[in-house]
């Protein structure tokens, strides 16, 4: 049965961020993920995890200057020093939080820039991170984002991500398989899951097209969950969706997995 993680960035927005840990635990979650921890001291977040018996299973490297359209720095040529500081910071947080996986964000590729140069830079920075994280048993995930969510992001298709993972060629670097983006860009989710077998170590879910709870829309998630169980998938499934309304009211789908 899948191990579901509440995404505290997207869910429980009725509450201030630091109150979402208790809400997630009360709703029956044992695991949490969220985009970025850096607004808070790692020790403060760890205290919240411990207070409510939660395990942190994923967070991201910093996004850069979102107001300037940045969405990750690790693929931007000539920004390697900043990217590697972000990677080092992510490692510090992962060690305090006891988090097994970090999503290294790539970058948006501005019109006219060389995608190949961005890919090469990303590979070199991910290899840097792999070496730093390896002694601590921490994995790295890379994720494709659909253009409707993040236009011109370096990784669009799951096969873009697979190309980088195979190019990096390190045993602690994997695909972050977000079925919302995968359905929007690649489709054919069952065959895609088979093709990525052994290459992904974290999954995220949301309905398509509205990115809500997984109990609506065009993806038959029960079929996907059963397939993951049959494959023996042992990773986590992040609930990276925007609740239709009040978060707990939308958790009927989760009842049978508690
Ligand atoms: O947006 C997503 O699906 C990613 O998981 C993320 O964390 C930031 O792009
Ligand atoms: Mg995602």
From TrEMBL:
Keyword Isomerase listed = yes
Name the domain of life this protein comes from: Bacteria
User: What are the protein's UniProt keywords?
Assistant: Isomerase, Pyruvate
One Pfam family from the UniProt entry?
A: AP_endonuc_2
Q: Which residues form a coiled coil?
A: none
Span of domain Xylose isomerase-like TIM barrel = 21-256
Protein name per its UniProtKB record: Hydroxypyruvate isomerase
Annotated catalytic residues: 143, 240
Isomerase recorded as keyword:
yes
As one GO molecular function, the record gives: hydroxypyruvate isomerase activity
| Biological process, per Gene Ontology | glyoxylate metabolic process
Q: Which PANTHER family match?
A: HYDROXYPYRUVATE ISOMERASE-RELATED, ISOMERASE
Q: What family does this chain come from, according to its entry?
A: Belongs to the hyi family.
Which InterPro entries does the entry link to? HPT_OtnI_isomerases (IPR053398), HyI-like (IPR026040), Sugar_Epim/Isomerase (IPR050417), Xyl_isomerase-like_sf (IPR036237), Xyl_isomerase-like_TIM-brl (IPR013022)
């Amino acid at each position: 049965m899948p191990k579901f993680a509440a995404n505290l960035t997207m869910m429980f927005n009725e509450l201030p961020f630091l109150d979402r840990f208790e809400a997630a635990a009360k709703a029956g979650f044992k695991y949490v993920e969220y985009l970025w921890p850096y607004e808070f001291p790692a020790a403060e977040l760890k205290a919240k995890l411990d207070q409510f018996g939660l395990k942190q299973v994923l967070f991201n490297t910093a996004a850069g200057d979102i107001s300037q359209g940045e969405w990750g720095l690790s693929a931007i040529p000539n920004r390697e020093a900043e990217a590697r500081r972000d990677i080092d910071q992510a490692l510090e947080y992962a060690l305090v939080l006891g988090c097994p996986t970090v999503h290294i964000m790539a970058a948006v590729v501005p019109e006219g820039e060389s995608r190949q140069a961005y890919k090469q830079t990303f590979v070199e920075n991910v290899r840097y991170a792999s070496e730093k994280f390896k002694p601590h048993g921490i994995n790295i995930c890379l994720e494709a984002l659909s253009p409707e969510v993040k236009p011109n992001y370096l990784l669009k298709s799951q096969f873009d991500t697979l190309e980088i993972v195979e190019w990096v060629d390190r045993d602690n670097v994997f695909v972050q398989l977000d079925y919302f983006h995968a359905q929007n860009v690649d489709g054919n989710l069952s065959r895609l899951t088979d093709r990525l077998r052994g290459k992904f170590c974290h999954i995220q879910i949301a309905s398509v097209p509205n990115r809500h709870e997984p109990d609506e829309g065009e993806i038959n998630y029960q079929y996907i969950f059963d397939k993951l169980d049959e494959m023996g998938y042992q990773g986590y499934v992040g609930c990276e969706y925007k609740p239709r309304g009040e978060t707990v009211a939308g958790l009927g789908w989760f009842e049978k997995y508690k």
